[in-house]
Amino acid sequence: MDNAWGERVMKLRVLPASLRERNRYILFKIIAEAPIEYSDLEGAIWNTMLDFLGEHGVSKTSVWLMKDRWNEKEQTCVIRCNHLSVYEVIASLGLITRLGDARVAVKILKVSGTIKGLNIIHTNL
Amino acid sequence: MYFDLHVHSAFSEGESSLREIATQAKLLGYNGICFAEYFKNKDKMNEIKQEIKQVEKEAMIKIFLGFEARNSNELKKLVKLRREYDVLLVRGYDLALNRLAVETPEVDILTHPELNRKDSGLNHVLVREAAKNNVAIEINFRNILLNNKGSRSIVLKHIAQNIKLCKKYKAPMISCSGAISHWQLKDPKVLISMAMMLGLDIKQAKETVSTTPESIIKQIKERCSEKWIMPGVKEL
Q: Which member of B144, B187, B192 has the closest CB to residue A106?
């Protein structure tokens, strides 16, 4: 495959299924004093996880906050991690107490192995 | 069924009203909560009982009344009045009080035995006593939440040590938020996850928010019957 300058771009072959990491998707809801923004949530999750688990601990969780799954109206979002780190991620989410100026509580709605399994109806997509 | 048996309302050191806490607990998926208050006098107790009845109807959640003893004198007073409220908690931190709590069969929960201590507040002797007298040792989430960095790591180490002892001597364990505001209430899955991180397997971690509180609630019902005299003694 060539890029815009006619150079050949090497792409990694996709790993076989047996060697790929098994993902878990955690759907959670933010219950807050006032509606919160995605950027506040992202910052708070990274800071809390780095504080609690450390850089090495976070690297082991393969955590990723899925921006395209942020529902501003419902204040729900999906966080992805590997199947061995679900409890570390949920415990870290519980340590978030403030987003911006608003006090918050996190409610875990569902954990699934696929995004489809979360059964989210995306009104804003 | 999930229960949180250690929540403070504005009647004690808390910031939120009973109504706010009950509504938030229902939203987070709890089936019941227990307000752990400080004992002042019987009039105050009756006042709380009345408000609990009202809130229970409105919020559609089971609410229990508990008292947290902060010293040995309070504990003695509360043991005498044991039939008049649901749950007896003892605020752990002092070694002598921790010992008295685990040796008293009337006590249901020893809360945060590691609070403000340089050790875990429990040893094999105390945990064995707790197992014998069926006193649940608490995993307090607020103690983890309010500390950070170095102090949090020490708290986590002490809780993990207590969990190890409880597992060995089969003492009951209970996970509670220890919330003083309705914003400090945590999803039961968060409490389960934290218990798992500190050394429990999934079955034991779930028991700390469901089976152990349920067994305490069962004891409350037994205590309310006229045949109950004292722990381990009832009319036949």
A: B187
